[in-house]
Amino acid sequence: MLSDLRSIIQQVSESADLEVALEVIVSRVKRSMSVSVCSIYLHDEERSRFLLMASKGLSRKAVRKVSLGFDEGLVGLVASREEPINIEVADQHPAFRYIPETGEEKYSSFLGVPIIHHKRVLGVLVVQQRVKRKFDESDEAFLITLSAQLAGEIAHAESVGDLKRLTSGGGADQEIEFHGLPGSPGIALGSVVVISPVADLYATSAVESRGEKTEMEEFNEAVLRARLHIKNLERSLSSHISDQERLLFTAYVQMLDDQNLGREVKQRIKEGASAQSAWSEVILAHCKHFEAMEDPYFRERAVDIRDLGRRVLSYMQEHESDEIEFPDQTILIGEDLSPDVLGIIPTEKLAGMVSAQGSVNSHLSILARAMGIPTVVGVEGLKPGRLRGKEVIVDGHNGYMYANATPEHRSYFEELRREDAELSTELEQLRDLPAITLDDHRIKLLVNTGLMADVRTSIERGAEGVGLFRSEVPFFMRQRFPTEEEQRQYYRELLEAFSPRPVVMRTLDIGGDKALPYFPIKEDNPFLGWRGIRITLDHPELFLGQVRAMMKASYQLDNLSILFPMVSGVPELEMAVDLVKRAHRELTEEDGFDEILMPKLGAMIEVPSAVFLAREFAKRVDYLSVGSNDLTQYILAVDRNNPRVVDLYDAMHPAVIAALHHVARAARAEGISAGVCGEVAGDPLGALLLVAMGYESLSMSASNLLRVKALIRSSNLSDLRMLLKQVLKVANVEEVHQSLADFVQDPELRKLTKLGKKRSH
Ligand code: PEP
Ligand code: MG
After folding, report:
1. What is the pLDDT at residue 756?
2. Under 8 Å between Cβ of 510 and 535
3. Mind giving me the DSSP string for 257-301?
4. Whole-angstrom distance, CA of residue 593 vs CA of residue 152
5. Which ligand has the minimum distance to the alpha carbon of residue 448?
6. Which residues contact 137 (CB under 8 A, 6 or more apart)?
7. Which of 509, 463, 469, 511 is nearest to 490 (CA)?
8. Which residues contact residue 641 at a Cβ distance below 8 angstroms, ignoring those fewer than 6 apart?
């Protein structure tokens, strides 16, 4: 049974969709356990019942017809107890409920296990036996293992709307909600343009046929080119390869023949498929076939077929990007949108973006925030191809996207979008006013930036300077490390654009989720590995080059501060400070830079050890800057980019608040200034707490700046301190949010806190 288990799990995880996965489970479990019946009931949200979704053994007619209330029958009992129920004589159990349509009365023994995902019961997996049978512990363990695997599949189907479609019996136009991460705030309504990764065999299903003749021509041309390519390759390698290996090339050419893959593809094109989707389907089917073979030689051929598939597909897609038509209000959707997509669409047509991959701090999100484009990233299970041309809503405030939205839902979001626009216009009048509380406490509001593209928006929003320049961003845009002079020019442009406002430049912070394509780092635990200052101290040539470029760039502008990321101990900090001092000393000895000023130096507080060492750090630098994004992830042990644990990631967690409070006090005790440059500084309610703690500057994405300013200008520091006092006593995160929400009563101000925007999901 154990080897069966592994192979069932494998088959389930490879199933094309949930329906297939359910069928696989019921039929294979029935065989493996030698039971009379195996059935799966799933939670039907709309009807608040458990619907029989698949069964081997019960009457076929009962599937998708029979359902049970939440506390009905043995199925209801399993769900409410959230544990397996194993009964030898089921029909004598008080909870037993007879359902004639299933023919159930014939079955005597019952074993049911709940299907649970993230504490929610999604359904029940049941086996039944006609003759009396005592299921044993290994039977239970077998089903529990399967149900855990199935839970993941169901949750995935739920997140992409397939579950709703299945339980409601079809309806391709049901509203579908996609949950991801808020990459950039704002609401966008528009039509989808899919940006497919080039030659992705999985992303062609929605490419429509333009007529048999055109599709055939496209296919024939691509095949011809692939053949030529293979022949040329064979010729150029001929002196290096054996006759045996040569045969492989012949085999590839033959594969493309009308007797082989070509025939199947052409048949599909005749049936109405596009050349791209027909080709991809055929290739993937053949890959699957080869991958399933026992012989490793044949299994490896799957890789060759996939390569061939990609090559032919890339020929078919070559002219596509020139042909994309962007409607007004385009929503760009892709598996892994990269910032270069912004180069192919006219900015005035771009309304929003959604990417299956990516994180709140990925390059795309940073750029989207800078440009004010509502964006959702990290949408698990998003199948971009299925959304081509559809009207969708992007809720970048909360990280949701909706397809096939109901008319009421559409108007709800249209209203929100209108409110957003009104609010932005209203807020513009605050641009040149200081961020000062009603009782005269002044806060500096700065922006986080990484690109020159942010500069204009930042200054338009009244930024008083840059609180965090993520210097890795210009490093991402190259094929190699930029030279000192290239860096100097880039930094100079930024320092000039903001001058005389101050600019905090952080030294290179790569590692973790920020890998440079030309400096790959492979680690099992990248967030706990070689990151930030650890890398640059190990590579003083990189560090020195960068800080020299920064200091040279600031020559006679003198608005530079330098910030060290990911510092976890005093020796690291001392080493970094010494290196900057050395670079400064050397520069002053160079012609033309003799009067260069020593910039202010700061340490980021973004790991727990730095919190506890904050006073020691404060003795060695001019300011502290809290990176609450990483600090939250390390204090709570929650990966900041992992959608599975996104509900646990919260900078308003009492433990994070205590740390933030501690750091502010440490800086004060040492008489230096402290600021926050993580996302919490741009969250209007979070910002209020930080002001109360005594942080002097808050650095955030430009799009949040005026909201935060408006809220600060309507608050009294004395009230904020009372709020902080109350929050510091609270033990759980929900209560913190409640206290913060209760603090802002005025409906106009509540709009600024985004509280009004959350819709109940
Ligand atoms: C942080 O960790 O809060 C921070 C500002 O740095 P980054 O988001 O670039 O890691
Ligand atoms: Mg960080």
Report:
1. 42
2. yes
3. STTTHHHHHHHHHHTT--HHHHHHHHHHHHHHHHHT-SSHHHHHH
4. 61
5. 1
6. none
7. 469
8. 359, 360, 361, 378, 513
Structure tokens at 96: 């037993």
Residue nearest to atom 3 of ligand 1 (CA): 627
The whole-angstrom separation of Cα 578 and Cα 673 is: 21
The answer, yes or no, to whether any atom of ligand 1 lies below 6 A from the CB of 449, is: no
Residue-wise DSSP of 642-682: -GGGGGG--TTSHHHHHHHHHHHHHHHHTT-EEEE-SGGGG
> Is residue 745 within 8 Å of 694, Cβ to Cβ?
no
| CA–CA dist 388, 7 (Å, integer) | 35
Structural domains of the chain ordered from first start: 2-168 (3.30.450.40), 176-196+322-426 (3.50.30.10), 212-316 (1.10.274.10), 438-752 (3.20.20.60)
| 512 C-beta closer than 6 A to ligand 1 | no
Query: φ and ψ at 391, to 5 degrees?
Result: -85, 130
Q: Are 463 and 445 in contact (CB under 8 A)?
A: yes
363 assigned to active site? yes
Mean of all residue pLDDT scores within the chain: 88
Verify whether ligand 1 is closer than 6 Å to residue 606 (CB atom): yes
CA–centroid distance, residue 627 to ligand 1 (Å):
5
Rg over CA atoms, the chain: 30
Angle 422-427-428 from CA coordinates, rounded to 5°: 105
Q: Is 677 a catalytic residue?
A: yes
Check: CB of residue 358 under 8 Å from CB of residue 336.
Answer: yes
Ligand 1 atom 8: residue of nearest CA: 629
Q: What does pTM read for this prediction?
A: 0.75
Which residue in this structure is represented by tokens 């991958």?
291
At 560, list the tokens: 């530079």
The closest alpha carbon to 445, from 653, 720, 724, 703, belongs to 703
- What tokens appear for 735 in the block? 């209560």
Bridge-based pairing of strands 697-700 and 673-676 is: parallel
Average the pLDDT over 160-180 and give the result: 72
272-292: average pLDDT: 86
Query: Which CA distances in Å does 374 have to 408, 417, 760?
Result: 21, 11, 20
Q: What is the pLDDT of residues 491-546, one digit of tens each?
A: 999 999 999 999 999 999 999 878 787 888 889 999 999 999 999 999 999 999 99
Q: Are 756 and 749 in contact (CB under 8 A)?
A: no
